[in-house]
Amino acid sequence: MELDELRQIRCTGSSWKPPKTTETVDPRIVVNPRQAQELLTAVTYIGRRGRGRRLTALFACMYYAALRPAEAIALRKEDCDLPKADWGRLLIDASRPKVNTQWTDTGDAHEERGLKHRGQDDVRPVPIPPTLVKILRDHIAEFGLGPNGRLFQSERGGVVASTAYTEVWQEARKLAFTPAQVASPLAKRPYDLRHAAVSLWLNAGVPAPEVAERAGHSVDVLLRVYAKCIDGQQEIANRRIDDALAA
């Protein structure tokens, strides 16, 4: 485009059509609170030298705060308000997604970026329940902080790689689930913990604008993506139709 050469390319047309995709979350992947707790417990038993235990709080942030994995990896101590006995708060202002090193300025596989779907300097406050506050306080006490105050680090002090936490997650699924559940889509990826969190909030009756703010979505995207995960909506609709027909 900059060289003004695109207009010289002649396209004769194509019969190819992009495949249809779906944006909605498959409800089969969503774990309930009991299953989520069993998975987090199973993570602590994976690997030697506390390999899994080091990642338990990372997964807990995805479930209890609906953080994206890259947002959880970028968490620093200064982003956390962790009172001894009450709800806390996380201030999410960055993420560290894994990218090809040739596309980063530093040559690092994890480049710090702003929040998804937001301006570069935007901050997203996320209230967190006392359960997660305690998990994070215990994590810091046991493993300390990484460079720049990062909460999560590898055994050598580096950024936690997606391959590392994915391997631990797959092992934890085998430990926490039945063979049938392991073969199913249930919590197949660590990211599915975020889907479970948002689904839980919606089903608990938290207003959609509040859920969208905490999860970093627009309300429109939230309701479109999680429409099939809102439990009980069909029964409510059926009762309303019954009432209307009987009027």
Keywords:
three-stranded antiparallel sheet; mainly alpha; 10 helices; 247 residues
Along the chain, the helix and strand elements come as HHHEEEHHHHHHH
Strand order of the largest sheet: 1-2-3
Averaged pLDDT: 85
What is the count of β-strands? 3
What is the helix tally? 10
Cα-based radius of gyration, to the nearest Å: 21 Å
Unreliable parts: 115-119
Globally, the shape reads globular
**In which range does the helix fraction lie?**
40-55%
Q: Which structural class do the helices and strands define?
A: mainly alpha
What is the first-to-last residue Cα distance? Answer: 63 Å
Strand content: under 5%
> Biggest β-sheet, characterized?
3 strands, antiparallel
Short précis:
This protein is mainly alpha-helical. It is 40% helix and 5% strand. Helix 1 packs antiparallel against helix 2 and helix 1 crosses helix 5.
General description of the model:
The protein is built from 10 helices and 3 strands, in the order αααβββααααααα. It is mainly α. A 3-stranded antiparallel sheet has the order 1-2-3. α2 (56-64) packs antiparallel against α4 (130-143). The longest helix is centred in the last third of the chain and has 15 residues, at 162-176. It is globular, with a radius of gyration of 21 Å.
